[in-house]
Amino acid sequence: MLRQHSLLITLIQPLKYLTRSSLGLMLLVTLGCTSITSSQWDQRYGKATPREITDTLPRATLTYYKDTKPIIEQRCVVCHGCYDAPCQLKLEAYEGLLRGANPRKVYDGTRLLGASLTRLFEDANTTAQWRDKGFHPVLNERKNIPAANINAGVMAQMLELKKAHPLPATTILPASFDFNIDHAHHCATIESLASFTESKPLWGMPYGLPGLSSSEHNTTMEWLAQGAAMGTATEIPAVVQKQVEEWETFFNAGSLKQQLVSRYIYEHVFLAQIFFSESPHLYFRLVRSSTPPGKPLARISTARPFDDPGVSRVYYRLWQDPSSVIAKTHMPYSLTPARMKKWQQLFLSSDPAFAYEVSTLPEYAPDIAANPFVTFAELPINARYRFMLDEAQFTIMNFIKGPVCRGQVALNVIQDHFWVFFFAPENQSTEGNAKFLAENSKHLRLPAEAGNTLLPMSNWLKYSELQKEYLAAKAAFVSKKIAAEGGLELNEIWDGDKGKNPNAALTIFRHSDSASVHKGMIGKAPKTAWIIGYPLLERIHYLLVAGFDVYGNVSHQLLSRLYMDFLRIEGEMNFVGMLPEKDQQPLMNYWYRDAESHLQTYVDLYIKQVDAPNNTRYLTNNPQQELYQKLRAYLGQASQSHHNISTKKLPARKLALYEKLQSIRGTAISFLPQTTVIHMPNVGLFTLVHNSAYSNLSSLFGEDKRRIPAEDSLTITRGIIGAYPNSFLRIEETEIDAFITQFQQLDSEESYRALKDKYAVRRSNPQFWAFSDKVHQLYHLSEPEEAALLDYNRLENR
């Protein structure tokens, strides 16, 4: 009887949205309390017909673009975006709402065969095609009448379920809620919804969070009752349209040289959210089309950007992306006249000193297309490296935010906190470097060419042998090159063009199965650092961005992870190679405590074989910290970050408090989640980043066994770090002393809960949404270009 009562509440709620459906609603209630079949829905409201983007709803007064988009963004998209949207219900665009939901997970590290591609805007053009791919509607697709739109719409019913069954009045939500990121998805269809509401009455939407306010709920429900009309999106301003036309003309010039250059640019910026300064929040994507500029865009969709397009001539077009901007995928990239001029100078200069010819366009065969050192061999190395280096944060961010907007397989290969530097382009683009790459391109083959292989280990052995051969050849080349130059100097490192380019130093934070990358050297000195040159930067991109298939099978993902080990080690060895020879092996031993024995093979093949004088003078017994200090001074402004707490001039006592908090070590840190966002009223936003320590990262498995909590560290930053906040705190400036004291004394889950009782804005807090809105407002004020919607799928329930 209690279950039937729960269902009755859910079904009776729509009465206030109906004008003449009382009899119909009574019939609906009698259809059954465990399931309602499609035929029963058909009898009441007619057969379902997929809603298309072109459908019009003449009686609608409320529309998505005019009325409900901000509500859906702030209350729904914060959980339903990117590949890890629950039930693949991607709500960052109206088209995703029409597409609906699918119970199959995109992130699946166990599948033996690659999954069907289900990328919104790419892998189907109509709602009917999405239905053929296994997506079911969340909007009513029967008669467009209020009764049907509410009763036969999953979204409407899930909102009503939350209103009928709000969160329990407890600080910690009951165990019936499952907040495990990998929990089983319960993707209710309209036919199974009655059973779902009986068994999980508290699982209305927003899931595990407070319900919408009365005004938000009423507006959304009225919009749904009217048919959930789309309305009209903002038109592209004429000044932006002119820019689009100019850039499409640039990308599609007819020469072989321009076609190869455009292919190179496309394969590196295909994930970018391109914008123009005249309209900075209107975003475009560079896509391949079978039609030229001036004709309707006919998008070419392939699993990877270098896959065969299936047409004789590819055109590169700018497609306006209507999606809401979400932090876990947001990678803004501006196109300006200055950038076009720079690219023309790099790739298309008429200066005889930089002249080169493109004799033929490369094929799209996997063994060629997956190897950029073969595909783009005729493009100058300096142009390629400069192109990537000028926007190095974006280049690295593709690896962090691209196809793996989350993914343990891809990201447990990196430390929780490390710095990245780059070799100077003038030292990477000599004639000798070009010859070395040409001779060793066969050693730089990447797993992407193997696709969804079923033989990961045999392929790994093949690529590991290629890597060994490459490291041996690189050691010999580097030794000879440095000796000829008179010895290793700090000027081997890119200085950001005398500090003018802020991409010269980057900080990367890993947050379990997600990560973030920021300009400058943030936080205290990390355990490790990388130095990246052109070949390494290009391989990272083609391994984990252009060549990574998030829909791929377990073997593809495993092979990509294993190969990334090689690249991490190489970046770390480049850094260690800047230190005195006597300190190199001990430091690598410390970084790789208890690692598999095969690791030493790669170290021996490179570090122990490089024989070149080091002219950098070290005066202390801690050369790693000394090198960090030298790099900070050498890079100047390029080493700075607005995220550092010392960026703004602070009173000595306040700065000392922040430093005291950041210096906490040991047990207390272990109770913190990965990221904690703090709002200090009248001061701003801060993030506490918990950096977990490991003995080594040389194995895909057993990560927990390699944890060393006693070595964990804490970074406190200004602003937002990470796209997935785990906890929210609200601390008055006058409470910082007391907060630090209580934090230092954490020694149990109970003491952590007491800390949160005093300062936290938990997911169960009735004021959660007001706090969320404030955080987003401050985020956009402080970082207008990079700010985007945060994701709440990882908010803790503690």
UniProtKB/TrEMBL annotation:
Protein name: 9-hexadecenoic acid cis-trans isomerase
Organism: Cellvibrio fibrivorans
Pfam families tied to this protein: CTI
Top-level taxonomic group: Bacteria
